[in-house]
C-alpha cells in the first residue's frame, strides 16, 4: 500500500547551517502515514515533533530529505498547495488558530471558500452538518470563539479542519490544555470521526496512555531523531530503545496494564 504521507530522511536545521547557533531540530527522520491509520508521535519537549509535523505539510521546509504525498515527491509550490486539500493541521491552542472577531460559522465556511469546495448556497448546510458531526449545536455558528469553552473551541478547530474532508488530520497536542473529562470527550470524538470518515490521524502527544489507547502505530522521537517505531502493542510491551524504556518507566502502569479508569474514554 502506498502511504498517504511519507517523509524520507528529513533533516531540519533552523538558522544558517554554518552558524554555531544553528539548531538541528530533525536529523534524517523517516515516517509514513497509511490510509485510515492513527499514528502516534511521542517524545520529550523539544524532541522535534511539531517541527516534523510542520515539515510534513510544508509550513517548514526540509533542509535535506523529501516528503511524498500518495507516492509523489512534493517539490513545486503547487504540489504543497494541493497537499493541503488532503492534510489538515489542528493546533494545541485553538485560540491562536481561530480569529477572535470572526463568528464560528464564517470561520468554518472560510476553507470552503478558499478551496472552492462547494457552491455558496450549500455552505450554511455544510457548516451545520460539520458542527453536528463534532457534537456541537448548530447555533454555535453565530457565536464568537471567546463565547465558547475550551473544549467547544477545540471541537470547532476540529470542525474547521474537517470542512474540506481531508484524508489526514494532524493533531498536535490537541487535548493537552483540556481537563480530563473534556479530554476524554475530544478523544472519543476523534475515534468516532475516524470510524465514520476513515481518515488517517497523526496524533502528537506527551501522554503515553492516550497514545496507547488511540494509536495503531507509534514513532518515538528523541533529540530530533526517530529512535523507535512500530505497532503500539509491541512498543509498549517490549520497548527496545533505552529512551523508550525510560519514557515508559516514568509512567507507572502504562507498560503492562490497561489504561486507568481516569483515562478511559467516556462519551
Ligand atoms: N522556528 C524555529 N527557530 C529555531 N528553532 C526552532 C524553531 N522551531 C523549533 N525550534 C527548535 O527545534 C527543536 C524542536 O522543537 P519542536 O517544537 O519541534 O519540539 P516538540 O517536540 O514539538 O516539543 P513540545 O513537546 O514542547 O511541543 C527545539 O529545540 C526548538 O527550540
Ligand atoms: Mg510541539
Question: Nutshell version of this structure?
Answer:
The chain is built from ten helices and ten strands.
What profile does the largest beta sheet have? 6 strands, mixed
CATH-defined fold name of the domain at 5-93 and 169-263: Rossmann fold
Q: Count up the helices.
A: 10
Q: For the CA atoms, what is the radius of gyration? A: 19 Å
Number of strands: 10
pLDDT averaged over residues: 89
Helical percent range?
A: 25-40%
Quick one: CATH superfamily of the domain at 5-93 and 169-263? P-loop containing nucleotide triphosphate hydrolases
**Helix and strand sequence:** EEEHEEHEHHHHEHEHEEHH
CATH class category name of the domain at 5-93 and 169-263: Alpha Beta
Low-confidence stretches: 256-267
The portion of residues forming beta strands comes to 15-25%
Structural class: alpha/beta
State the strand order across the main sheet. Answer: 6-7-8-3-9-10
Q: Which descriptor suits the 3D outline?
A: globular
Comma- or semicolon-separated keywords:
23% strand, binds magnesium ion, 267 residues, alpha/beta, Rossmann fold, six-stranded mixed β-sheet, four-stranded antiparallel β-sheet, binds adenosine-5'-triphosphate
Can you describe this structure?
By secondary structure, the chain is an alpha/beta fold. It has a domain at 5-93 and 169-263: Rossmann fold. Helix content is 37%, strand content 23%. The chain is built from ten helices and ten strands. The strands form two sheets. The protein has a six-stranded mixed sheet, sandwiched between helices. A four-stranded antiparallel sheet has the order 2-1-4-5, covered by helices on one side. Strand 7 (168-172), helix 7 (180-197) and strand 8 form a beta-alpha-beta unit. Helix 5 packs across helix 6. The longest helix has 18 residues, at 180-197. The protein is globular and about 55 Å long. The two termini are 33 Å apart. Mean pLDDT is 89; it is low at 256-267. It binds adenosine-5'-triphosphate (ATP) and magnesium ion. Magnesium ion (MG) binds at residues 49-50, 172.
